[in-house]
Each structure stands twice: as structure tokens, then as C-alpha cells.
From TrEMBL:
<dbReference type="Pfam" id="PF00232">
    <property type="entry name" value="Glyco_hydro_1"/>
</dbReference>
<dbReference type="InterPro" id="IPR018120">
    <property type="entry name" value="Glyco_hydro_1_AS"/>
</dbReference>
<comment type="similarity">
    <text>Belongs to the glycosyl hydrolase 1 family.</text>
</comment>
<keyword id="KW-0326">Glycosidase</keyword>
<dbReference type="GO" id="GO:0016052">
    <property type="term" value="P:carbohydrate catabolic process"/>
</dbReference>
<dbReference type="GO" id="GO:0008706">
    <property type="term" value="F:6-phospho-beta-glucosidase activity"/>
</dbReference>
<dbReference type="InterPro" id="IPR033132">
    <property type="entry name" value="GH_1_N_CS"/>
</dbReference>
<feature type="active site" description="Nucleophile">
    <location>
        <position position="368"/>
    </location>
</feature>
<dbReference type="InterPro" id="IPR017853">
    <property type="entry name" value="GH"/>
</dbReference>
<keyword id="KW-0378">Hydrolase</keyword>
<dbReference type="InterPro" id="IPR001360">
    <property type="entry name" value="Glyco_hydro_1"/>
</dbReference>
<protein>
    <submittedName>
        <fullName>6-phospho-beta-glucosidase</fullName>
        <ecNumber>3.2.1.86</ecNumber>
    </submittedName>
</protein>
<dbReference type="GO" id="GO:0005829">
    <property type="term" value="C:cytosol"/>
</dbReference>
Amino acid sequence: MSNTDTTPFPKNFLWGGATAANQIEGGYLDGGKGLSIQDVMPNGIATAPTEAPTADNLKQVAIDFYHRYAEDIALFAEMGFKVYRFSIAWSRIFPNGDDAEPNEEGLAFYDRVLDELEKHGIEPLVTISHYETPLNLTRTYDGWVSRDLIGFYECYARTLFERYGSRVKYWLTFNEINSVLHAPFMSGGINTPKSELSTKDLYQAIHHELVASATVTKLAREIAPDAQIGCMILAMPTYPLTPDPDDVFAAMTGEHSNLMFGDVHVRGEYPGYALRLLKEQGVELDITEEDREILKNTVDFVSFSYYMSVAETASRGNQQTTAGNLIPGVENPTLKTSDWGWAIDPVGLRIVLNQFWERWQKPLFIVENGIGAKDQLVEVDGKKTVIDDYRIAYLNDHLVQVGEALQDGVNLLGYTPWGCIDIVSASTAQLSKRYGFIYVDRNDDGTGSLDRYRKKSFDWYADVIRTNGGSL
Ligand code: BGP
């Protein structure tokens, strides 16, 4: 692909970028915001949460989007963004999660963000819940283990649809909904230590989220008929390590644990393999007749994150042997890895796109993709920048595969690479794992001016958007 005439990207393709409130906003107590689970996770997912917020939590200020959103959205517009994916912080709207009334100051903040996007003609794509369950719902109810969370989430979503429903078309119910399996505290607000969490409680929490997702899908259709509701899945193709059928089967089973979430969202019921898995584990879920009816409210589109693939073998047992984005597996010896050991696999993205399209026949949306890297700020012609050729190479190679998938016939709405501006990393809770086209001057020890600088990839991406993928 070299010019606009030959691009396989459709005319109205939604190019943009993605972030999440807790990783970008800061202002963790501003405007009446309550505490979320992220405010007690200063060290990322690997360590236990703290009792109360601690000053070393970089998310308290993050990159100060709460105050600098206008400047940042202007930079996104400069790159030509058509869409911006961001999340609303649940605890800005309902500080305790179970409050009777929403917090007007929190609502007004997102009005201002939407005003700014509108000013630049950028379409919003809103994640309703992105790893930031209000802390009170975690401590008082044990997060999604409790059925009560469905009602609190419904009330929160209703508030959003009523307030923003006429301005926001695209909504995602839960970020990486399948991640609850691997990070129950971060993803499900579940307070029970992972080692003590019973399989039944874990799957019950998952069930509650699935019912909540379908509940608000139904609600959106009543309140905001133009809304398009999507589920969001952490996608990770799982390859058999060898052609041994046992390895092939192990890889298939590994994928099932992710695909189940899409199957329920798209087919409106649990697939047979999931029912069997639960039965074999002795889990009897509390599923009511009403739940079964609600689950039939299926999504309009399927969105997903894609960073890497993984390999699997029947002999792995419970041992996770390779670094990666939450989902376990073994190292694929054919692939190179990022600074953080995540396998780099552009063809895997084409595989996922084809697999999801064939399986679900629903429009797809790539809402996260990118490479976390250790960037070096340098000066070129008197301007500070980052020469991030590795990021350009990663994204270019992945987008070429997206182009191939489009030619395979896949229906894809858009592409929002992750952390389009540097943000606090979810897994490490640090700033040194950077994804952005825009460098933010903030260090892991909290020092830095918070100034923004365009990286080399900023111009590269602007070109990709301007040519609708023709420059790839
Ligand atoms: C996804 C999350 C994001 C983001 C991304 C990159 O799982 O949806 O919140 O953080 O992973 O992960 P990390 O920051 O750990 O590199």
C-alpha cells in the first residue's frame, strides 16, 4: 500500500486513540470524586492494594488530563483523530457507587470534554467501566461477586445515557471484560485475595457483569435509540506450541476462556463448552430466568484490545511461563518481544480479526493496540522529541495486517491505538512504560513538568490518517 487510491480502509474509517480515566485524569479527589480501586493500587496489579491512598500513587495526578484536556484534545485533532476513546470515572459520577444522587461536578467535567471533542469534530467512544470500580463497592459488597452491583451499575449507566445519550453514539460496557478471570481486584473490584477466591464466586462475578452489560444494552436502546453498544474483549490468539493434538486442544481451551465472553454478548446465552467447564469444576451458578431473558439483549458491535499472542501446551499445568497482558501461556520461540517481554505478532491481529468476524458476524472495533516502550527524550533542531522508530514499526506492521484483514472481508469500524498520549501504565502503575504519540514529561518518581512533546510517531500517525492508510 502506498497511496490513497490503493488503500483498503473504508472512507468513513474511524482513526483515533484510546485512554482510560484512572490512567490519564489525575484530580483524584477533585470535583467531589470518590475513591476508586485505582486509588489504592500504587504499584500496579502485581501487589496487594493499600488500605488508603498513598502519595506514591502516580494516578493521583496521572498526566493531569483533568485540567489539560483541552490542550490534549487539540493535539489529537492536530493528528486528525476522527474518534477518541476515553472512559468515564464511575467514582466521579457516583463517589461511593451506591449514592442516591449523581455528583453534578463530575457530570459537568465530561460535558466539557465532550464540548471540546465536538469543537474539533472528534467522535467520542465511551467506556462506561474501565478498571475503576468505586472503592466503597469493593469494600462493602466485595465488588461484582455481589448481585447488588448490577443495580448500581445500571443506575450509573442510566445517568450517563440520560446526560450524554444525544452526544455519544459509541459505548463500551466493560473494558476487557474477560480480564476478571486474571485480575479480579482490578477488573472486578473483588476484594477477596486471589488465592482465596472460590471458582464459584469468580464465575458468579463474571455472570453479574455479563447480566449488567446486557441490562444497560437494553437500557441504552430505550433512552438513546441511536446508541451503538459494544462489548470489549482482551484478545490474545493462543497458538498450539506444537502440532500435537493435545497442544492444539490446550490452545483451543485457552481461547475459549476469552471467547466465552464474546459468545454470551453476541449469542445471548452461554455456549455449551462454558457450561461443561463450569460443571466439571463443580460450579453451579445462580442464574435466574430473568437473567436468561436479559442476556438476549445482544451487542451491536464487538471491540477488543490486541497487543500480543501467546503459545500454549498441554503440559504447562498452572505455570505461567511468559510475560504478557494478563492471559497466561508459554513463550512462542518464533516471535521477538517488546521491552517488557510482550511478544510482537502483527499477523496475530489479522488472525483475530478474521476469527472474530467469522465467529460473530458483528462489526469489529480495535480499541487498543500498541507497544509499551522506554522512550528517550532528545533535542532535534531545538525541539524536544522522541525518535520512536520502534513504535512506528510496530504500529505500521499491525496496520498493514489490518489492511489485509479488510481485504479478507472483515467489517471493521475503526482503530484507536492505546495510550495515544503517554499515561500511567495499568500493570506497572509507572510512567516509564509509554505508548503515546505525545510524550508527557513525568517520571516514575513523580517529578517532571507535565509538558507535552510530539514524538516522531506523531507525524507518522497524522500521515496515516490523512491518507486513510495509504501511506502504510
Ligand atoms: C489493557 C488495558 C489498558 C492498558 C493496556 C496496556 O489491558 O485495558 O488499561 O493499560 O492494557 O497495559 P500496560 O499499561 O500494563 O502496559
